[in-house]
Structures are given as C-alpha cells and as structure tokens.
Amino acid sequence: MLPGSDGVITVSQDSIGFMCCSLIVSDSVADPALRICLSRMSLPVRKAISEIVGYTPGEQPQDTDCTKLNTNENPYPPSPMVVEAIREAATGSLNVYPDALATGFRRAAADVFRLDPNCFLAANGSDENLTIIVRTACDAGQLIAYPYPSYVLYETLAEIQDCPVERIPVDASFAWSDEVAESIRRRARLVFVSNPNSPTGNRWTPDELARLVPEDGLLVLDEAYGDFPDQPHRGELLHDSRFVGRLVITRTLSKSYSLAGLRFGFSIAQPELTAEMRKSKDSYNCDTIAIAAATAAIQDQNWMLANRSKIVATRMRLAARLPDFGFNVYPSEANFVWTQHASGRHESIYRRLKEKRILVRYMKFPGAGPDGGMFDGIRITVGADDQIDRLLDELNFAVSGVS
Q1: In a domain, 33, yes or no
Q2: How do residues 321-361 score in pLDDT, each as one tens digit?
Q3: Within this chain, do residues 132 and 196 fall inside the same structural domain, yes or no?
Q4: Residue 61 falls within a domain, yes or no?
Q5: Is the pLDDT of residue 22 over 50?
Q6: What mean pLDDT do residues 136-144 have?
Q7: pTM of the model
Q8: Are residues 358 and 343 part of one domain?
Q9: Residue 52 domain-assigned?
Q10: Residue 77 near residue 88, CB atoms below 8 Å
C-alpha cells in the first residue's frame, strides 16, 4: 500500500488483509473487495475461545419500573457504614494504587471467620476467584467437573482454559452415586460445587462433599449464597482432615451484603494455597473504593444478619404460597426458590410475567431431566415483601391458559 505519483494511495488485493485489522465490519463499506475480505476474515483468537458461546448473565433492564426477581440481588440497601466508607475513600488518595492484597479487608474477614488473614484472597467478585483458581490449578486438558444442573459459568471457565468438563449427574434428591463420585475423585483436577446450589437451592452435607474431593486436585465450594442456609458455616471444613489442602471456598458480597453493584468477592484456603493463587491474579484487581466498602460491609455483621432474617422469612412465605398456583417448590437454603409448574410450560409463565413488568429467571438444563431429558423451571429471587406481593398478585394471570 504505497502512494502513487499523483499522491493517491493505491490499495492492492494483497494489502487488504492488513487493513482489515483496523477496520470495523460494516455494511457501509463501499469497496466490494474489502467487504468480501471482512466477511471472510479469520480473527486471531484461540480456537477454545472462538468455539464457545460464553456465559450469558441474567437480564439487567435499564428502566426502574419493573419488579426485578431474576438475578438474586439483595432487595435491601447495604449498611450505612458502607456508604460512609465509600464517601471517605472517594475523597481520599484515589491518585495512588490501591492495596494490592486488600489487607484491611482480609483482617476484617479473618475476624468474622476466625482464620488467619493469609487464608483470604480478595477479588473483583467471586467469579474472579473462580477464574484465578482455574488459572492456578489447571493445565490444558485436565478435567473439571461439577454437579449438574448448577452454575454453567464453570463450563465456560473450563472451555477458556481448554479443559474438558464433565457434568456430575444427580438424582431427584440431588444425590450422586458412589460409582460416579469415585470416578470423578480419581480423574478430576477441579470439582466445582455451588453450595447452596443454584438454581435448585439445595445444600450438600460435608459427608456428601467429601466424596468428591479429588485425589490430585481441588474441591471448590462456591458459597455465593453461603449466608442464607439454616445453619451457615464459617469455613469449618478447612479444619476437617478430609479437606485439608484440597479445599477452596469462595464467597461474594453481592448477595448477603447487598453489594452486587460494587463487585467484590473473596476466597478462603490454606495460606500456602492462597499464596500460590495470588500469583494468578491481576496486580490491582480490587480498587480502593471497593476495598473500603467491602471492609465496612463485613464488619457490620448485625446489618447483614438483620437483612438475612427478613429474606429468609419472605422466602418461607413465598414457598408456602406458590403451591396455591400449581407450582412445586424445592426446599431452598438460598435467597431464591426453584419452582416447577404442573403444566410444565415454564417459559410461557416467564413471558406472561414479563408482560406485567415482573422479571423472573426461566432456566433450562438439557440432559438433566428424567431419562436424560430437559430439566427446566423458574428461579425466583426473594425480593422485599412488596415485590413478592406484586408477583403473587399477577400469578393467576401468568398461569391462566397454560394448565
């Protein structure tokens, strides 16, 4: 691609490929040859990336007039201590980098969990903790497994790392067989278990979990909803001989601490393992404001526990009312309920609720149903009482005509 004697740049066919790198693909490109090139261009990305669909988050409407019960946020505001901490941080030294290890937060979390601060690794939401774990533990080709149905981001993380992924089948009571557990234990590098599980809300016992601890790998307990069970725990399994050196727990402040919009999570593991995971994180993965807010949030346990109590009470009320409309409700230890309607027409019910500006989450899991069929249903976030009242008011409309 060189200027001619008249100063006009002449583009040869050979040079078009070079130009494609800096052009936006658009129907407005006039040159037919260039349009053909753009349509046929092979992007320089890894095969593992180009072949995956990627994780799809729940719908986040930009208006505020809908009742939003689809993404498991906390309906109550964070502690006033959080607001004050953000205000102080925003008027502080934002011109310097944050504490790369979030030392203040780790000390506060250590007080809550009664563990060494070096057990904790702060991250940009617990999803980043999951990413760090995969980066740290897995080479390409090593097996990642998880009970199914559950949080499908685990599959995306495996695919990005070019690792095979295996779904652990569970029965109607969410139990896995001894044969399957033993096979996974021998072959897997990582086993992810969402506990309580999303979308079903069930919680597995320590004895059940111990059967999945890999011989040469890690069990990762994703406790995004870990403050909502009937008996929340505080990392006691780290002291259990069946898990020592083979367990990582992840937590988020998005759910119980009302900080979904801030993005802060943390993992808990033996200090030696946490030190290795630090090598895989971004240099400054948590910003100054997020660290200050998270530290204030975890220090105000009374505020969190009061909101938790309201959510659990509303969860019980919602679970008691849904059968009146033809729903079967699974026992939940999270801040949501998983429900299936007698008609089986869950997507229609979801859409009819959406017509009324009520968002719930319609979810389907191919291969997880009876005899390997479809397992689908509706996951409903436990909102504030007025939000749940509105949902209940519209359920007759939503289920009408689908039975």
Answers
A1: yes
A2: 999 999 999 999 999 999 999 999 999 999 999 999 999 99
A3: yes
A4: no
A5: no
A6: 98
A7: 0.87
A8: yes
A9: no
A10: no
3 state DSSP class of 380? strand
Residue 367 sits in a domain of what CATH number? 3.90.1150.10
Task: Output the pLDDT for position 9.
Answer: 36
The Cα 287–Cα 262 span in angstroms is 10
Domain coverage including residue 250: 80-300
Task: Say how far residue 345 (Cα) sits from the centre of its chain.
Answer: 26
Residue 62's pLDDT is what? Answer: 66
**Gap between the Cα atoms of 377 and 348, Å rounded:** 11
State the Cα angle at 56 between 54 and 62, rounded to 5°.
140
Contact call for residues 130 and 215 (beta carbons, < 8 A):
no
Beta bridge partners of 364: 376
How many CB atoms sit inside 10 A of residue 27's CB?
6
24-82: per-residue pLDDT in tens? Answer: 444 555 677 766 665 666 788 877 777 777 767 667 776 668 999 999 999 999 999 99
Structure tokens at 182: 């033993």
Q: What is the CATH number of the domain that holds 295?
A: 3.40.640.10
* Residue 403's pLDDT band (cuts 50, 70, 90): low
Contacts of 47 (CB under 8 A, 6+ apart): none
30 and 159 share one domain: no
* Furthest CA-CA distance within the chain: 83
Q: Which of 51-55, 182-186, 292-296 has the lowest mean pLDDT?
A: 51-55
- Given a cut of 80, whether residue 188 has pLDDT beyond it is yes
The reply to whether 147 and 269 lie within a common domain is: yes
Q: Of 269, 300, 331, which residue is a domain's last?
A: 300
d(CA 47, CA 140): 13
Q: Give yes or no: residues 236 and 267 share one domain.
A: yes
How far apart are alpha carbons 393 and 374 in whole angstroms? 29
The span from the CA of 386 to the CA of 13, in Å, is 64
Are residues 76 and 310 in contact, defined by beta-carbon separation less than 8 angstroms?
yes
| Domain total of the chain | 3
The verdict on residue 36 lying in a domain is yes
Supply the pLDDT for residue 34.
67
260, 279, 300 - which closes a domain? 300
Q: What is the mean pLDDT of residues 370-399?
A: 96
Q: Which of 213, 250, 218, 246 is nearest to 130 (CA)?
A: 250
CB 285, CB 276: distance < 8 Å: no
**Do both 204 and 345 map to the same domain?**
no
**Structure confidence at residue 28 (pLDDT):** 54
Instruction: Say yes or no: 220 and 362 in one domain.
Output: no
